[in-house]
Amino acid sequence: MFASPLVDRLLDTAPMVAPSLLACDFARVEQEIRRLEEAGAGILHLDVMDGHFVPNISFGIPVVEAIRRVTDLPLDVHLMISNPAQYLKRFREAGADLLTIHIETAPRPEALIEEIHALGAAAGLCLNPPTPVDAVEPYVDQCQLVLVMSVMPGFGGQGFQSAVLSKVRRLRQLAGDRLLVSIDGGVNLETVGDCAAAGARLLVAGSALFSQPDYGRFIAKMTQMAQNNQAA
């Protein structure tokens, strides 16, 4: 079993808000990261989109490298791309600490999970709203994180699909506290309590966070609401 001190630390401090830089001001990325560090963020979520698996293009390896140069925060790199096998090593070298691939692009992900571990990173699997938990269940013991999408990936600012909370609950039943269950899409002050109650421990926040004038106050409030509602 792959040992990840980083994931252990994240589990120890969960629930945690993970700012999604997709929603930040890209004209001021370094300043945005400094604000997040000062606000108490413990991890950054990076959405890599290829315009093929998802209908949008975000950023790639050079941007991840640039972000790595300006922060020591862990980088949770979410690969929304059609051919993750081709890029795992390069994103790891760019600075990814966690590499998450979609089960829809890798329905038999054992070899990719092993490669991610061999590269020294924690491995995550992601499933889109229409994809059942059954698709990832055989691999839950092999990875450190499962990301449940609560919107269809590709664009920020979408509405939260509450039906996916049953997946979060199922993952917690399967793995207990040893798996970092993450949720992404429409996570805000109205939905964070339900996410935490279902068992989510990593709460990816994009538009809801970066629309706030005070990142620290928002992260603190989200975290407190998650703590108050988290599943036993």
Fold and architecture overview:
The protein has 232 residues and is an alpha/beta fold. The chain has one domain: TIM Barrel. The chain has nine helices and eight strands. The protein has an eight-stranded parallel beta sheet with strand order 1-8-7-6-5-4-3-2. Strand 4, helix 5 and strand 5 form a beta-alpha-beta unit. The two termini are 25 Å apart.
Structure described in brief:
The protein has 232 residues and is of the alpha/beta class. It has 9 helices and 8 strands.
For the biggest sheet, the summary is: 8 strands, parallel
Average pLDDT level = 95
The SS-based structural class is alpha/beta
Low-confidence parts: none
Report strand order across the widest sheet.
1-8-7-6-5-4-3-2
Shape: globular
What is the β-strand count?
A: 8
Q: Helical region count? A: 9
Tags for this model:
18% strand; TIM Barrel; 232 residues; alpha/beta; globular; single chain
Topology of this structure?
Blueprint: H1 5-13, E1 16-19, H2 29-38, E2 44-49, H3 61-70, E3 75-80, H4 88-94, E4 98-102, H5 110-118, E5 122-127, E6 145-149, H6 165-175, E7 180-184, H7 192-198, E8 202-205, H8 207-210, H9 215-229
Helix pairs in contact: 3-4, 7-9
